Amino acid sequence: MYRFTFTFLILAITLNIICGEKHHPHLHKEVVIVDYHGPTNKHLFSLFKKAEVLEVYNSTLTSSPSHLYSLLPHLRKVHVENNTYEDVDYDTVLHGANALEEFYCINIKIPKIHLEVLRILPRLKICVVRGLNNPYPIIKDNSLNETQLEIFEFSKNGLETVEDLAFNGLSKLKELNLADNKLRSVPKEALVPLQNLEILNLAGNQIKTFTKESLPKLDKLQKLDLSRNPLTQFTIDGIGGVAPKLTTLIVTGTPLPEAELKTIKEKLNVQIIDQA
């Protein structure tokens, strides 16, 4: 791993040149940027053409050229966290990241970002977008339909609506996390394509009603998290018919009466978690 700020990197390269030492930043496979303030440019990124992992923390990027990640043809993981992007169009930055498999975008201040841009990443398997500074109220139809996603988290983003075809094409998805948003429901139709889904996390939303009719047939679903929702109507008799492999149901922090939970536990062959 090569951990640096841009200022330190430029100084290090300069000193190596002065001292006659060989410096090969292009050989480093993991690049970590911490506490940097300023622009990024193609020349500097081209120094790390062998990089497979890029992490940026606690930084402010004032500008960035388009297709920046295309300079890193081996890049398979990007993790950006606690950063501010000022005059940066992150949609275009991602263009050309053809080897990218994992993308983590956490607590980011950015003018705009569109989920649809993920469709240009043909190998993307894991995507975590959490804590955007601007609310992202809707996941539109076909936003992710050309990806190979297996894990998708979109939490703490002010999400209010999921359109019926939002997850169209995500037949490989195993984990969907939409926790801590403002969802009142997720359309049954939106979940139909997710035939390999094992974990569904809807915790911390505004869901009041949930029944077995809320789910399509999901043969591989094992864990359902509805904790911290204001559930008032909760009827899941016969849920085994739509989710035969369901083993864990989490309802911690809901207003469901203890007597009702006891009845559910007696009826279902499922672990009910109702206490933190």
Automatic annotation (TrEMBL):
Membrane topology reported for the UniProt record: Single-pass membrane protein
Signal peptide positions (record): 1-20
Pfam families: LRR_1, LRR_8
Gene3D superfamilies found in the cross-reference section: Ribonuclease Inhibitor (3.80.10.10)
InterPro entries linked: KCNMA1_auxiliary (IPR051432), Leu-rich_rpt (IPR001611), Leu-rich_rpt_typical-subtyp (IPR003591), LRR_dom_sf (IPR032675)
Keyword annotations: Cell membrane, Disulfide bond, Ion channel, Ion transport, Leucine-rich repeat, Membrane, Repeat, Signal, Transmembrane, Transmembrane helix, Transport
Matches recorded under SMART domains: LRR_TYP
Any Gene Ontology biological process: monoatomic ion transmembrane transport
GO annotation, cellular component aspect: plasma membrane
Localization, UniProt: Cell membrane
Protein's UniProt keywords contain Ribonucleoprotein: no
Classification via PANTHER family: GH08155P
Name under which the protein is recorded: Uncharacterized protein
Organism for this UniProt entry: Cryptolaemus montrouzieri
